Amino acid sequence: MITSMFSLYDVLQQKELDKDLLQIAEKVQEKERISETEGLLLFEKGELGFVAALANHIASELHHNKVYFNRNFHIEPTNVCVFTCNFCSYSRLYKHRDDGWELSMEQMMDMVRKYDGQPITEVHIVGGVHPKMNLEFFCELVRKIKAHRPDLHIKGFTAVELDYMFRKAKVSIEEGLQKLKEAGLQSLPGGGAEIFHSDVRKEICADKVDADGWLLIHETAHKIGMHTNATMLYGHVEKYEHRIDHMSRLRQLQDKTGGFNCFIPLKFRNKDNDMSHIPELSIVEDMRLYAISRIFMDNFRNLKAYWPMLGRQSAQLSLSFGVNDLDGTIDDSTKIYSMAGSEEQKPSLSTDDICSLINAVGKIPVERDTLYNELKVYSELERA
Fold first, then answer.
1. How many whole angstroms separate alpha carbon 73 and alpha carbon 121?
2. pLDDT at 333
3. CB 302 within 8 A of CB 324
4. Tens digit of each residue's pLDDT (9 = 90 or more) over 30-83
5. What is the pLDDT of residue 330?
6. Strand 325-328 relative to strand 302-303: parallel, antiparallel, unpaired?
7. Which of the residues 73, 199, 349, 378 has the least number of beta carbons within 10 Å of its own beta carbon?
8. Which residues does 280 contact at the CB level (< 8 Å), separation at least 6?
């Protein structure tokens, strides 16, 4: 198993360490922000043990030994989509919609009712961009969910979905978000960010909302009091400098608004898509990416490993590389990564499962709500 072998103190004692890397370690010790140039240097020269030591120091300072999760389920209204992202194994073009699924309002409400009486705290709604599932349709869905279960936090709709909805409805971003908020939407997921740089975006997802559009939607959500998440799809055609550019733009917006809950690196999986010829990254590179994200994204308190994408064992390993959140129970309610070849073909973990994963690496499981308020701290003997 890959492990972090050094502490920050050990790193600072290494006389033979590259002076530029030593300077980064000293900045981490002093809680100073590293630059884009230094972030790039970490990707180019930072060995796994080095970046792990820095990342774990930061995570320990922020969260001590706590690792967060929540009790959630997903609704994926459709995998029919008007866009053609080359990395996507999930969607089906509208002209081939008979090969996909389109859930009715009642089918989605049945999914919500399934959890009546259960201590679920969040429903996560994302899917393809379907031309007939418009702003009014989703406002009605959100209203019905909130009326049925007022205590359930509704997190929904990527910036890609929202951009299409708002353009089709001929409303501004703020008007559209306000309508959804009034219906009961409470926060946004981070999907659709992919890689912001235009050169990469042209190659992997040329026809959907660009970086400026994605960032504006999230900035506007923050402006009206809605928290959001942020993602980055890594391990395909992007270069190190594209990752740093992406994370830097998120960091700048977080400086401005403080509205992001967490950062979620998402690993490219290559099954059954137009980029299947690209090999997936090794687990060593996955862990380096998580560690460097923790070091660079200094104003993001939470770093999440989305276990249905990474696989539960790799997600568990990431807890030794700066990660402090494993998402939620999911309950086999998402197909996005199982269709792309993730090890998790039926992604579902009980609370006991998640606690066991966290305890096994010497961490403390903490159930949270969507906004990272702590609901329950679990001991090894107390799971339910």
1. 9
2. 42
3. yes
4. 999 999 999 999 999 999 999 999 999 999 999 999 999 999 999 999 988 887
5. 65
6. unpaired
7. 199
8. 235, 267, 268, 269, 270
Distance of CA 1 to the CA centre of its chain: 25
Element (H, E) at 56: helix 48-63
**Cβ-Cβ contacts under 8 Å for 34 (sequence gap 6 or more):** 24, 27, 28, 42, 295, 296, 298
List of residues 6+ apart from 16 with CB closer than 8 A? none
Q: Which residues of 124-149 are buried (b: 16+ CB within 10 A; e: fewer)?
A: bbbbbbbeebebeebbebbbbbbeee
Q: Residues 107-148: pLDDT tens digits?
A: 999 999 999 999 999 999 999 888 888 999 999 999 999 999
Mean pLDDT of the chain: 89
For residue 308, the one-letter residue type is P
Token pair 């994302």: residue? 126
Alpha-carbon distances, residue 137 vs 77, 92, 95, 144, 296 (angstroms): 11, 20, 21, 11, 39
Kind plus residue range of the DSSP H or E element containing 245: helix 240-257
Q: What is the strand order of the sheet 374-377 is part of?
A: 325-328, 66-70, 364-368, 374-377
H or E segment to which residue 288 belongs: helix 283-296
pLDDT at res. 336: 46
Is the Cβ–Cβ distance between 79 and 337 less than 8 Å? no
Burial 248-268 (b: 16+ CB within 10 A, else e): bbbbebbeebebbbbbbbbbb
Could you tell me if 18 and 46 are in contact, meaning their C-beta atoms sit under 8 angstroms apart?
A: no
Residues in CB range of 338: below 8 A, 6 or more apart:
308, 344, 345, 346, 347
Q: Is 53 helix (H, G, I), strand (E, B) or coil?
A: helix
Can you read off the two tokens belonging to residue 377? 């701290």
Say which residues have a Cβ less than 8 Å from residue 294's Cβ, sequence separation at least 6.
54, 55, 58, 59, 303, 321, 322, 323
